[in-house]
């Protein structure tokens, strides 16, 4: 992977992560990248500790919310038009 691809991947990742702040507005605050402050909600097996999988599951839900926000036609895939709209919402001129 050359430097150009690394830079593009970095900015794409930055855009996706920043989408959660925007998604939070649309999902009434559920778009935050922070998991729930209530450990009991995260501790799905109720053993009093958080496993990595339990912790990760909270982030998966947040990632899904961000993905679903971009996937405006709800077909489970982000097409070029949806991606372009997402970029433009964030002030990035799409090519």
Mean pLDDT: 78
Q: What does the largest sheet look like?
A: none
Number of extended strands = 0
Order of helices and strands: HHHH
How many alpha or pi helices?
4
Give the total of domains.
1
Report the sheet-strand fraction.
under 5%
Low-confidence runs: 24-31
Apparent shape: elongated
Question: Could you please describe the fold and organization of this structure?
Answer:
This protein has 95 residues and is an all-alpha fold. It has one domain. The chain is 60% helix and 0% strand. It has four helices and no strands. The chain is elongated, with a radius of gyration of 16 Å. It starts with a helix and ends in a 6-residue tail after the last helix.
Break the fold down into its secondary structure elements and pairings.
Blueprint lengths: L2 H24 L12 H4 L9 H19 L9 H10 L6
Helix pairs in contact: 1-3
Features:
single chain, 95 residues, mainly alpha, 0% strand
What is this entry, summarized?
With 95 residues, this protein is mainly α. The protein has four helices and no strands. Helices cover 60% and strands 0% of the residues.
């Amino acid at each position: 992977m050359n430097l150009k691809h690394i830079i593009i991947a970095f900015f794409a990742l930055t855009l996706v992560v920043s989408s959660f702040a925007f998604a939070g507005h649309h999902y009434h605050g559920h778009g935050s990248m922070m998991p729930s402050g209530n450990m009991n909600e995260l501790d799905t097996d109720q053993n009093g500790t958080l496993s990595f999988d339990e912790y990760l599951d909270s982030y998966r839900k947040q990632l899904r919310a961000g993905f679903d926000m971009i996937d405006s036609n709800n077909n489970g895939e982000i097409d070029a038009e949806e991606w372009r709209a997402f970029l433009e919402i964030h002030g990035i001129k799409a090519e």
